[in-house]
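User: Could you go from structure to sequence for me? I need the amino acid at each position, not a summary. Structure tokens:
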């Protein structure tokens, strides 16, 4: 990676253009490109030879990490490569068994021999030499290294060993000509050695890029690898820039090679002889290595599968299976068994049901697999496909050639346990993760090129900003910008103008085009796991990731699928973790346990919550734009939830389908049929979506209904439409038209329908996926509506490492009237917990407090009882907890408040107290001290030390909250802006969190925000002018705002921490970061309004419970004043205003507003 600048298709195309009949791939140490090269070379008419430039240990065993030096100290530059770790050896596969021996060797080099590089040794060469041809390698080979060191006899000995290992006719002395001093120094001795031992010569050319003109792009790529600029000196020049010495690292023609080796024609002839000898084949057979499910005696996979489906149907329908379900199951079983996938269903059902049996939450389904009633019967999925209008053929049909693919979601914390289970069940030699590749994309190529060419960072930024915006996360390629045939060519006019008018822009772009698309690094598929019926070592090359020991394939997907391997997707879904935590919170909070799969699907509070768009934290529905759509749509059934997930995407939104659906649903827009002839035939298909095509299944159903297609044929039609290739569409249209004509439709109706289907099929969504995910959305909405405290506690636990998200959800708790209590050593555990209708902060979220400390505190509390004082706490907990930084953090976070001391008092004495207790615990640990002897208090449970805590007043609110924020990452017990939100909301046109989540607001847009200044960094520009970066925060988020020039001069005096400000500015996007450039700043009036005006509170009647009203009285009594308090009690259809007694008059102030909001929610303040 970041070494070769040749793309395989271009490489083999160039070889074909030059008339080269064969080409060998010999990547360093790995076989990652072997299959792609074999496949692409054959298509180009070039014979592929699969090889490896192996790293060979310097005579040591592959597991031995001893560095070896063969020469004298002054010969270090000529000695063993890799600082003494390895030499090089070129290996080629002569036969297919030989290629698999090469795979085994390459795999074991990584699994057992990795030391800087994956290394083989003599033992592996002896074991797997059959079917291989070996060359002496490049200048870093063992023989060349020995010659450079003046050890000719050792070179001869090594060459003789290789002849013994591979056979005399299979070992060649390799010659290269790249105008290198290293080559010239060994050339004569290589020829001499060849003659002495009878080893044939072979001429090779080391390839690192395709064409001669690609040399500069390759030089740039190497500079990217070493993080250097082209102006910096290379390694050979004493610098740190990696660059190849010599020349000619491209695909040379036969004529060029003959000229280079004109004095050694036999070395060139050998290349043709070797090419003739090398003949290898990959076996391409989809599903060949489908894992075998272990079946009971007397059964096979098919018989067991049929029984499992039948039993599952009886269980799903409580012994009363509808006939349509039986018929569908019978049809699916025939298709599944005829295609050989019965075992696949059994394997998937097995690990899913193992997970469920072991308390691991599994998602209800994902992707098209939810359309299978067999999967539903076997508990692979949780949605009845017939009830929800899902289609099996979208997942699997007789016409489909590719494998089915169940994507399974698990609780993200326990996904690894399921993978461990399948590894044990099918054997670790049969299971592996899947390699992926990260390529250099257009924007990254521009930035890399600009940096390597030593341009300012701003130049790369200027170019990337001139590119058209990404569509669905994908940018136009640099080649597409200049290709009139590219569908987005017209959008790239600004970039082309810059390219044509600015020589620097042109230079950077031309350089970037040379590296765009090259592989940057390999990674691991986020979810995919290979489970094979045979050991993977016998099928493909594999490797070990050094960081964690994970076993990974050296072929990606779909290459693995072509070779017969089967991928299972094990995805970790955070929302399943939240769901599981919320259900546990309900039980732990003393409420009746909830079985989420059995909750009613027509729950009124859940749908009212969706209609109000109070969906922060609801799966798939918590984005700002989605909440606006929910308000417009007013969902009142599950079909609406499925639809909103499918509609809120660029394609449907570009056609305004989301708005049309919402308006038509609520009777605000007339439903127009696609064509009058189609109104009645398509009513059953499009009725639930108000005449709109939303789902891929609808496209398939329409083709079946009006054109007589089977659903398998309809799936092929859907796929063809999605590709948008004219010749394919024209061919498909003829069959579609013929089918509709047979059914009596007119040409105009046919053409009208086709013109609608083709564009819509490009972004129509998979209903099985949206319905399955919609079910998780509904479950989370149900919990938030009916168990808000328990659900929000789970949500806060899930985001405890993300202070921005935590701030949003903490503010949502305030909206919901849920009080979030600070952590407490006597009540908290590691996570957020529901305590009645409040939430208790988890101690693991406190800065400097690890999970081990939390576990120790909880264990001490459970074993020895609640802590009665600060001294008692220090006495009961183990010494691992008694760390000054940990105790300080707990104090500042408020975790000792329940012990009766102010935080200020505890902070004053905590260091002395910790020193005392550590001394006691240390003496006790070594038997030098009887903890209770001095006091004679063994029976009374006394302590051998005492901490005197002074009675100091608490810090003021500002200091208290500042420390709280430092330790918890956010304000908990209060917020400086509590009570003035209505002022900020009126002044700002967008909340900060909403702004940060808005992907559609363009760079440079003008926005107004309001909030608290929480930090100011003063800066001086290169020109000597002052400017500043201010962090401005509201109750949900924070953003950096830049103040430059006159704007800074105008507002520098008021730009101070704790100031409440309103800022108008221009949006500034840089990669994934967003900030503002200030244009204007004002100070809003946050003082209380006229003291005589009544304070009006609005409260739903259902919230007027005795505990709430009692706490409300306490809040009002704590803020006495002259303003009357009026209560507007609301119930459906009416409201009653009640004037509270004069003893409850209040002083209007921010602290009062904050307390009221924390108790009643923000909507209570009128």
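Assistant: Here is the amino acid at each position, in order:
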């Amino acid at each position: 990676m970041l070494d070769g600048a040749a793309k395989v298709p271009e490489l083999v195309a160039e070889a074909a253009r030059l008339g080269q009949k064969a080409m060998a791939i010999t990547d360093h140490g790995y076989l990652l490109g072997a299959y792609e090269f074999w496949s692409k070379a054959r298509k180009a008419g070039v014979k592929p030879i699969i090889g490896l430039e192996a790293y060979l240990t310097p005579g040591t065993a592959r597991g031995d990490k001893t560095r070896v030096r063969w020469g004298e100290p002054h010969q270090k530059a000529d000695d063993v490569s890799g600082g003494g770790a390895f030499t090089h050896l070129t290996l080629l596969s002569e036969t297919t068994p030989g290629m698999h021996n090469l795979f085994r060797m390459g795999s074991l080099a990584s699994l057992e021999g990795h030391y800087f590089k994956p290394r083989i040794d003599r033992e592996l060469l002896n074991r797997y030499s059959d079917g291989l041809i070996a060359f002496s390698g490049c200048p870093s080979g063992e023989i060349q290294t020995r010659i450079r060191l003046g050890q000719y006899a050792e070179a001869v000995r090594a060459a003789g060993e290789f002849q013994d290992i591979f056979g005399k006719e299979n070992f060649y002395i390799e010659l290269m000509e790249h105008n290198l001093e290293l080559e010239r120094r060994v050339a004569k001795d290589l020829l001499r050695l060849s003659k002495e031992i009878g080893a044939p010569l072979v001429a090779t050319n080391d390839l690192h890029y395709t064409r001669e003109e690609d040399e500069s792009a390759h030089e740039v790529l190497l500079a990217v690898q070493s993080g250097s600029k082209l102006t910096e000196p290379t390694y050979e020049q004493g610098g740190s820039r990696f660059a190849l010495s010599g020349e000619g690292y491209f695909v040379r023609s036969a004529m060029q090679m003959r000229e280079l080796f004109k004095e050694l024609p036999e070395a060139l002839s050998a290349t043709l002889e070797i090419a003739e000898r090398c003949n290898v084949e990959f076996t391409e057979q989809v599903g060949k290595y489908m894992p075998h499910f272990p079946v009971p005696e007397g059964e096979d996979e098919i018989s067991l599968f049929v029984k499992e489906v039948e039993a599952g149907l009886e269980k799903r329908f409580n012994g009363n299976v509808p006939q349509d379900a039986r018929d569908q199951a019978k049809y699916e079983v025939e298709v599944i068994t005829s295609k050989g996938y019965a075992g696949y269903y059994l394997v998937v059902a097995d690990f899913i049901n193992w997970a469920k049996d072991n308390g691991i939450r599994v998602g209800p389904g994902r992707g098209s697999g939810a359309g299978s009633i067999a999967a539903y019967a076997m508990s692979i999925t949780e949605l009845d496909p017939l009830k929800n209008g899902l289609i099996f053929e979208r997942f699997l049909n007789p016409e489909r050639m590719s494998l089915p693919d169940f994507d399974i979601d698990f609780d993200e914390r326990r996904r690894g346990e399921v993978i461990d289970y399948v590894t044990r069940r099918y054997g670790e030699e049969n299971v592996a993760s899947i390699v992926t590749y990260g390529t250099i994309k257009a924007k990254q190529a521009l930035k890399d090129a600009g940096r390597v060419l030593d341009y300012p960072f701003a130049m790369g930024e200027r170019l990337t900003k001139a590119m058209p915006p990404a569509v669905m996360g994908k940018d136009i390629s640099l080649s597409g910008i200049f290709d009139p045939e590219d569908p987005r060519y017209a959008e790239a006019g600004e970039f082309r103008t810059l390219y044509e008018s600015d020589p620097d822009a042109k230079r950077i772009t031309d350089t970037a085009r040379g590296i765009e698309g090259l592989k940057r690094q390999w990674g691991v598929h986020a979810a995919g796991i290979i489970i094979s019926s045979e050991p993977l070592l016998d099928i493909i090359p594999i490797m070990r990731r050094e960081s964690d020991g994970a076993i990974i394939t050296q072929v990606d997907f779909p290459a693995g699928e072509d070779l017969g391997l089967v991928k299972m997707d094990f995805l970790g879904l955070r929302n399943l973790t939240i769901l599981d935590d919320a259900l546990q919170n309900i039980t732990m909070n003393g409420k009746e346990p909830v079985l989420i799969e059995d909750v009613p699907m027509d729950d009124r509070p859940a749908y009212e919550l969706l209609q109000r768009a109070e969906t922060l934290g609801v799966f798939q529905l918590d984005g700002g734009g989605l909440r606006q759509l929910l308000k417009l749509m007013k969902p009142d059934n599950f079909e609406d939830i499925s639809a909103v997930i499918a509609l809120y995407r660029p394609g449907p939104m570009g056609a305004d389908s989301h708005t049309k659906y919402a308006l038509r649903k609520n009777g605000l827009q007339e439903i127009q049929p696609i064509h009058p002839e189609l109104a009645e035939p398509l009513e059953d298909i499009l009725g639930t979506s108000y005449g709109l095509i939303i789902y891929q299944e609808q496209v398939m159903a329409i083709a079946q209904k009006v054109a007589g297609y089977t659903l398998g044929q309809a799936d092929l039609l859907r796929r063809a439409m999605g590709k948008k290739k004219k010749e394919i569409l024209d061919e498909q249209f003829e069959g579609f038209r013929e089918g509709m004509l047979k059914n009596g439709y007119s040409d105009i109706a046919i053409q009208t329908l086709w013109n609608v289907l083709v564009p819509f099929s490009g972004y129509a969504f998979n209903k099985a996926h949206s319905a399955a995910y919609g079910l998780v959305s509904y479950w989370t909405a149900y919990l938030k509506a009916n168990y808000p405290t328990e659900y929000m506690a789970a949500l806060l636990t899930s985001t405890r490492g993300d202070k921005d998200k935590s701030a949003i959800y903490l503010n949502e708790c305030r909206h919901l009237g849920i009080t979030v209590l600070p952590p407490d050593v006597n009540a908290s555990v590691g996570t957020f917990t529901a305590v009645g209708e409040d939430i208790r902060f988890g101690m693991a979220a406190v800065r400097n407090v690890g999970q081990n400390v939390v576990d120790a505190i909880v264990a001490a509390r459970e074993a020895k009882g609640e802590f009665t004082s600060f001294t008692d706490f220090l006495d009961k907990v183990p010494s691992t907890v008694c760390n000054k930084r940990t105790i300080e953090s707990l104090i500042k976070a408020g975790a000792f408040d329940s012990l009766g001391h102010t935080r200020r008092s505890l902070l004053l004495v905590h260091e002395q107290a910790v020193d005392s207790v550590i001394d006691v615990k240390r003496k006790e640990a070594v038997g030098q001290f009887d903890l209770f002897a001095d006091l004679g208090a063994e029976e009374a449970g006394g302590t051998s030390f005492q901490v005197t805590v002074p009675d100091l007043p608490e810090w003021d609110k500002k200091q208290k909250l500042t420390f709280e924020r430092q330790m918890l990452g956010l304000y908990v017990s209060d917020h400086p802006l509590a009570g003035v939100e209505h002022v900020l909301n009126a002044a700002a046109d967008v909340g900060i969190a909403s702004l940060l989540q808005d992907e559609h607001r363009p760079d440079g847009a003008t926005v107004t925000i309001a909030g608290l200044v929480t930090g100011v960094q003063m800066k001086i520009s290169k020109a000597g002018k002052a400017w500043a970066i201010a962090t401005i925060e509201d109750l949900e988020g924070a953003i950096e705002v830049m103040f430059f020039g006159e704007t800074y001069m105008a507002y520098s005096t008021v730009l101070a921490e704790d100031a409440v400000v309103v800022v108008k500015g221009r949006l500034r996007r840089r990669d994934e970061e967003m900030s503002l450039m200030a244009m204007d700043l004002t100070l809003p009036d946050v003082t209380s309004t006229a003291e005589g005006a009544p304070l009006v509170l609005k409260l739903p009647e259902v919230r007027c419970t005795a505990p709430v009203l009692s706490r409300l009285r306490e809040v009002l009594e704590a803020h006495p004043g002259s303003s009357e308090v009026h209560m507007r009690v609301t119930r459906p259809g009416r409201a009653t205003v009640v004037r509270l007694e004069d003893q409850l008059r209040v002083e209007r102030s921010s602290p009062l507003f904050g307390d009221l909001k924390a108790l009643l929610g923000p909507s209570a303040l009128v």
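One structural detail worth keeping in mind: Residues 582-707+724-779 form one domain.
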